[in-house]
Design a protein that fits this description.
43% helix
Length: 183
Amino acid sequence: MNLLILNGARNPEGQTARAAEAVAAGVREAGGEVEHVLLPPLAVERCRQCQADGWGICRTYGNCVIDDDFAMLVGKVAEADAVVFATPVYFSDLSESMKTFLDRLRRIRIGGGDKPGIKGKAAVGICVAGGGGGGAPSCGFLLDRVLARCGFDVVDMVPVRRQNLDMKTELLRLTGEWFVGSI
């Protein structure tokens, strides 16, 4: 099994990275391979809504006119057996880098058939909240909704708070092991 982790956190050693790495550890322990990609350092522009009607060729052809790292990321998603979307929670919502990527992914999925190779692909969401942690469930709801709209088979959505991160890392490691046997 080949797992792709898309991480919307800036800090490669922060709480979101710890949570994502726990899934990766479980996948590796079960014999799978993992690629971990940090989104913030990549060049992924926001959607330009490049036609007068607010859409673009994305709606018709399933790809985007912007020449940046987005197409490379979509290729990685298509090649993976499963994808983990890990995001820090900001104001009960996804990180800006995760939002930007998913906004464009959603657009190419609207009318482009299954050109990106996503339909039915297993996905897990991890939403890691600092502070009081109350925004993790709201973020999970939003992430679940957009992943389902893109065509992913969302098999789990894990809200994490800084207060329960140590406990949740064990759950996430087990999720990684389970993933290898289930996909």
